Amino acid sequence: MNDIEVCAMTRTASVGFRGYIGSRVYLCGEFPQNVQNMIIRNYCQKHGLTYLLSATEYAMPGCYMILEEVVNTIDTVQGIAMFSIFMLPTSPKVRHKIYTKLLKAGRECHFALEDMSIRSEANIQMAEDILRLNQIAAKSVVLG
Fold it and tell me: Judging by beta carbons within 10 Å of its beta carbon (0-12, 13-18, 19+), is residue 10 exposed, middle or buried?
């Protein structure tokens, strides 16, 4: 193997899981960024995953620009290690686009706070059920 081939392999190697944290309040609560990173790091250690530096979402409500960038460059990593499932976009349609892109690329998405992951269609259904149940619970508290 020559130097050019080694360099090309290094650039395209997909080793590790990109962390994804936020700087706003999510349904799971408000956690400082250093705590979010610590929880992701511990989750990755527990599951034998290589943890890569986290991308941090902007604080604007409803903004998912950084998540979009992480998903659009998913071929450079093994997957995403999110702090919480509640950091996913609120729109089911947008979430399904993310799930489809990840699974088509053979990648995974992990949620450290909930200690769960999406690796298959069955996992997607479980994640969606959790998000729907949370919406129902929130509505019942408001209507309560």
Answer: exposed
**Taking the model in full, what pTM does it have?**
0.85
Check: CB of residue 36 under 8 Å from CB of residue 22. Answer: yes
Helices (H) then strands (E): counts for the chain: 5, 5
For residues 115 and 53, is the Cβ–Cβ distance under 8 A?
no
Contacts of 74 (CB under 8 A, 6+ apart): 80, 101, 102, 105, 107
Cα dist from 23 to 15, 81, 92, whole Å = 26, 16, 22
Do residues 15 and 34 touch, judged by C-beta distance below 8 A?
no
For the domain made up of 14-143, the CATH class stated in words is alpha beta
Q: Is the dihedral of CA 86, 90, 96, 102 positive or negative?
A: negative
- Please give the Cα distance from 55 to 47 (Å, whole number): 20
Cα Rg of the chain (Å, integer): 16
Kindly report, residue by residue over 31-82, the tens digit of the pLDDT. 999 999 999 999 999 999 999 999 999 999 999 999 999 999 999 999 999 9
pLDDT, position 6:
35
